[in-house]
């Protein structure tokens, strides 16, 4: 650091000490840290294997009851670049939740919003603001910010799903409120699957329903419709970067399902290798069907059915399905936050025909 002619190193030392004592800091020593040329993230790309998720979820079921206070039997995916911070990316919480036959999880509400992506089981439910949403594999169920929600499994099989929450972001914004419902479960005041009847076909909505909040009024996006939409599009259109990728939409707005989180379903067709690109948002993926690989910043992450992985912000990534079966990825993304703040950017990888060189392979 250059000094003015009259200044001495001693005077500077005293000055810096005085600044600190008065809770002030110079910008000029921190400029490069505060204003990197492009986003720098502590979030690391990482993958969690289904064999681990499933066996550890089952063990949690043998050891841990679901009670008030603990609230849920949830195993969070912790980013190794953010240990001790309960987050999968800097903004997103992803987890698996395990509910055994006959079990209930107590009703509560909180300002962090959540989605459930059902991995295994048919017929358990989440109740959301008085409406019972019956869930099966491939369903996407929303619990928007501050909605009462509780879960129950009245089936004969254990149920496991992915939880996705904006909790890290909301916590960083000091915006977290939590309230337990006075009873263990909330009363069901609406017809079963009510929001599905109102909005479930996507192309029509009741004329008298006005948009109330920023979240989607459709609480359960059923797998049969998701699957049909993917199948239809597969015959006619695909993105060079994401192949047959579709976003779940809020039927009121056409926008993301939650103001903080977008959800995608994407079919990577057999033999496809997408082109690489990067975006300022982060994403957490769940491999719903099939197997393949995602190359993130030159590292290849091979994935199989049930695995989950995180793509950090501003990281080059491309997907490949070298098998002859379809691969289907579900993901949560913090894109709506970046877009709302004018911070969303994307860039295509131009070198090498749009493909990264693979320099390492994830071992886990
Ligand atoms: C929560 O309330 C649920 O309602 C799941 O099922 C995961 C993770 C962090 C904080 C609250 C649920 C959660 C959560």
UniProtKB/TrEMBL annotation:
Keyword Oxidoreductase annotated: yes
Oxidoreductase as UniProt keyword: yes
Molecular function (Gene Ontology), one example: dioxygenase activity
Domain Cupin type-2: 96-163, 265-332
Matches recorded under InterPro entries: Cupin_2, GDO-like, RmlC-like_jellyroll, RmlC_Cupin_sf
Keywords carried by this UniProt record: Dioxygenase, Oxidoreductase
Name of one Pfam family that matches: Cupin_2
SUPFAM superfamilies hit by this protein: RmlC-like cupins (SSF51182)
Protein name: Cupin domain-containing protein
Organism for this UniProt entry: Tectimicrobiota bacterium
């Amino acid at each position: 650091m250059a000094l003015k002619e009259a200044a001495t190193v001693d005077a500077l030392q005293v000055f810096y000490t005085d600044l600190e004592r008065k809770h002030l800091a110079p910008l000029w020593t921190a400029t490069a840290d505060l204003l990197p040329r492009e986003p720098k993230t502590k979030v690391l790309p990482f993958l969690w294997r289904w064999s681990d998720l499933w066996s550890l979820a089952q063990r949690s079921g043998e050891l841990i009851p679901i009670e008030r206070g603990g609230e849920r039997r949830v195993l969070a995916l912790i980013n190794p670049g953010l240990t001790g911070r309960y987050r999968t990316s800097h903004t997103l919480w992803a987890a698996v939740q395990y509910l055994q036959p006959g079990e209930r999880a107590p009703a509560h509400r909180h300002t962090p919003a959540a989605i459930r992506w059902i991995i295994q089981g048919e017929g358990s439910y989440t109740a959301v603001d008085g409406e019972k949403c019956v869930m099966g594999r491939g369903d996407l169920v929303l619990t928007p910010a501050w909605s009462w929600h509780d879960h129950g499994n009245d089936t004969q099989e254990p149920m496991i799903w992915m939880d996705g929450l904006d909790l890290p972001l909301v916590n960083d914004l000091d915006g977290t409120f939590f309230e337990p419902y006075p009873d263990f479960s909330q009363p069901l005041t609406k017809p079963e699957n009510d929001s599905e009847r109102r909005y479930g076909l996507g192309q029509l909505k009741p004329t008298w329903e006005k948009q109330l909040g920023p979240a989607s009024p459709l609480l359960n996006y059923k797998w049969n419709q998701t699957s049909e939409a993917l199948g239809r599009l597969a015959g006619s259109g695909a993105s060079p970067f994401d192949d047959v990728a579709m976003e779940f939409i809020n039927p009121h707005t056409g926008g993301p399902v939650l103001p903080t989180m977008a959800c995608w379903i994407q079919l990577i067709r057999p033999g496809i290798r997408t082109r690489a690109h990067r975006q300022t948002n982060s994403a957490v993926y769940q491999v719903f069907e099939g197997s393949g690989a995602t190359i993130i910043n030159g590292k290849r992450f091979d994935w199989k059915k049930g695995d989950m992985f995180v793509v950090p912000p501003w990281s080059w990534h491309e997907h490949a399905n070298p098998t002859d079966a379809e691969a289907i990825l579900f993901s949560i993304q913090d894109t709506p936050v970046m877009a709302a703040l004018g911070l969303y950017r994307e860039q295509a990888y131009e070198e090498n025909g749009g493909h990264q060189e693979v320099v390492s392979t994830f071992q886990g």
